[in-house]
Every structure is written in C-alpha cells, then in structure tokens.
C-alpha cells in the first residue's frame, strides 16, 4: 500500500474514535500516570541503596516503603480505570465501524449481493473489524504512551550517566540488523494467515449452509476434503507466522541482553572506581531494560499497525463502493397509492453486461393483473427489480401514479410494494414473528386473519406450538407450499396496493401449487399485480399478458387474444411450460 493510501486508511480508521476522544485522552492519561509511577520506582531504589542503606535510618525507610505502597496502589487503581476505558473505547469504536459497514451493506443492495458471496460479507463484519479492535484497545494508546515513556526514560538515563547511555545506541543498532526484517516477515505471514482464515471461514459457512445438498448427494468426503485443504493452508501460514514471531522475540531479547551485559561490565567498573554510585548503577540498569523493551515494542507496534492497515484497506475500499441506486436528498411524499404503473422507454443492462431491456414500454392500470412471460434471460425478473428500485434504468423512467419512482424515498416506495419470490426466506423465529415481519405492530387478530386469508391458519394450528412454533433456520420445518403461504400471509398483513410475484409457484409440486394459487388469487383481488409466470395455466384469467423477447414487448393482450393471433405466444402455449422459465 502506498504511503498516501496508508495514511488515508489510517485516518479513516481513527475517525471512529472521534466521538470518544475524551475516553482516548483518559486512556492516555492513565497510561502516563502508570508509566510515570513505574519510572519513579528505579529512582526510589537508587535512593534506598545510596542513602538509606548507608545511613541505616529507620524513618526514611518507612517513608520509602509508604511511598512505594502508594505508587503500587496508584498503578493498580489507574490500571483498572485504563482497563475499563480500553474496553469501552474498543467496543464502541468497533461497534460504530460495524454499524457503518452494515448500513453501507444495506445501501448496496442487490447489485452487491449478486456479485459477492455472503461469506465474504460476514468476513468483513467479523474477521476484519475484530482485528481492528486491537488498534483501538492497545496499539494506538500503547504507541503514544511508549513514545512518551521512552523520551522520559532516556532523559533520566542520560542524567544518571551519559557514558552508559551511549551503550543504548549499539544495542538498538544490533536489534535493527534483523529486527525490521523479522517484524516484516512475521507481519506479512500474519496478514496471509488472516486472509486464509477468512477463506477458511467462508468455506465453513458454505459447508454448513449447503449441508442438505451435501448429504443428499453423499458428498461429505468431497466437502471435508475441501475444508481440510483450506485448513491445511491456514495451518501452514500459522506455523510460518509463529516461527518468525519466535525469532522476532528472540532477536529483541538478544539485543538488549547483550547491551545489558555491556552495561553490567562498564557500570561495575564505574561503580568500583567511584565514578558512579551503586544505587545509580542499579537504577540505570532497570531503566535500560525497561527502555529497550519499550523501544523495540514500538517497532512491533508500528509494524502491526501497518499490517492492520492492509486489513483495514478492505473495509475502506468496501465503505467507498458507490451504491448503484441512490436515494435522492429531497424526496416526494407519498402514502398509499392506487397502483398505476407506467414504463416509459425503459432500457437496462447490468454493469459490463449486454442489454437486458431495450426501449421497454408498458402501462398498467390500477387493479390490473399483468403477467410477464418469455424465455429466461429476457428481462422479466429484472422488470420487478426495477419497480422496487433495486436497480435504476440506464435509460427511460418508471412512473408510479404519475410520480417518477426515483423521486420517492425507498421506504415510501417499498411500503407500497409486496414481493413474493420463488424462494421465500423465513427467519428462525416463531410463525407469528415471521408473519409480523410484514407489519411489526399488527395485533394478534390481524395475524390470525392474515393467516386465514393465506390458507395457512389450519396447518399452523397443527404445528406443535401453533403460532408460537419456532421454524428453525430458513423455515426448514415447513414444506415449500407452507413457506409460500406464510410469505403470502405477510403480504396480507402488510396490505400493499401493488403485488409483485416472481415465479412464486415454480418450485412447488402440483398439490402445493394449487394451495398457493388459491391464496394468491385472494391476495391479488383488488390490487395491481405483476407476475413473472412459468405456467400458462396460472395466468389465463389475467387482464393482460406481455410476451417479452430480447428485452422488448413482442406480443401483448389477454389470453384469448394472444391465442387467437396464432403468434409466438400461441406456439409457446403448445408446450404449456414456457421455454427456459
């Protein structure tokens, strides 16, 4: 990463600390009090050796003991305060970052999720954010405290003996011969290990999510081999990371132990010749080991922050991905709409893809039932996505009761739309909560009425706990037809004026399809309905049928009119099931 890019990412990461700057200041102040107290102790030891031991006086000794106890209490007290401040700062800053990423994730919508797997998004929310917690909790406060500690400590060392202080220079040079290389290697492999952990977690998620397919196809060994392969790669990087981390620590200890031996030799000579007191020599030695540990730790801290910025860069790039669909700053106000929809010369193509719709025009009157038919890839489902503003047309516009939909807020638009997809998502909550998803503040009577309207009430009562039955993840305890009727109950309780059905019965068996169709007929009554159809038998009673080919309206009319024309729709009807649907 370039230095200017590194700084941008670093300052973006630190921006989440801004609302908690007083906690950060408190954290730093606590660190200063603790390090200041620690720096006083060697001077007290010097005073004890040089003054109290020689004078053999009791009172100064008692005062010294009392002062040491006070310092210990001070260190313990401020360590506790620092620990609380660290935890609060870490959790709140990382929480704000997670919420920021989650909010942006929601804004990206369909365009993002159709290109990126769920495991990748989970890795961003969990692994990367969790890694950055260390920056807020430890690395940044420590770097500031250690920098100040080093300056004060070196100053005290020079005040004791400038000659001995010169040994600090070759000790640091000895560390810098291999230190930065080992730090870089350990950090580099640490980053690779983090990436491998993300890929491993993605694979574990995919394995768990697809467990039914894996079992159905007796592919447990195949799946396990892939998991083992990912873990083997992760394990390999872990070994390399810890290997270089070991040598990084060994090099650090070796450098200041060698310097320590030199200080003991030179300091002993100075002490024996009277050039330095014994107490000053002991105090200097303590300062030296503290300072060398801190100075080498600063290098580690900077390197670790550099690696963290590589991980933070993923979040930074993600948070700067522009949303394909933007909500206008000033939107028109709308409540309930009659449901008149007009497509005016709408063209659309996905990013870097061929044209899906080309000058598509269609007018749908309030309460009309319109079916979209045609082979796959001709833009039928795309039309529903455009109505819901999951994407915007590349050309032309869509009007809802004479109001361009891009002028409406997402909330106002989508509250007036009711989607029923081919695959219904049910939450791992109770039946009641899943129905309430359509209208969270609905009463119990409304829930039951919606279930009855969707022909779901009877089978719900047969469940172990009725409306309180927990459905399990994705509603695994229900059949396909039962899931669809729960989703239709959601629409009844939501009561939108416009219904959008995307092949809602395509994956159901004949019996389930009849049950769901009966519920859909009741749902569509009096509402504007757009249906992406795959069976002609389900749309014979529709007011208008639109045959789409290559993104254009090829034929349109009611069922009898299109059959009478003996055109493309008639030929499709001979097979009953539409080609490619």
Primary descriptors:
581 residues; 10% strand; 64% helix; 2 domains; single chain; Rossmann fold; ABC transporter transmembrane region fold; 6-stranded mixed sheet
Descriptive account of the structure:
The chain has a six-stranded mixed sheet with strand order 6-7-8-3-9-10, sandwiched between helices. It is elongated. The protein is built from 18 helices and ten strands. Helix content is 64%, strand content 10%. α8 (220-272) packs antiparallel against α9. The two termini are 47 Å apart. With 581 residues, the chain is α/β, with parallel strands linked by helices. It folds into two domains: 3-319, ABC transporter transmembrane region fold; 341-573, Rossmann fold, CATH 3.40.50. Belongs to the ABC transporter superfamily. It comes from Gracilibacillus orientalis. Keywords: ATP-binding, Membrane, Nucleotide-binding, Transmembrane, Transmembrane helix. This is ATP-binding cassette, subfamily B. It is found in: Cell membrane.
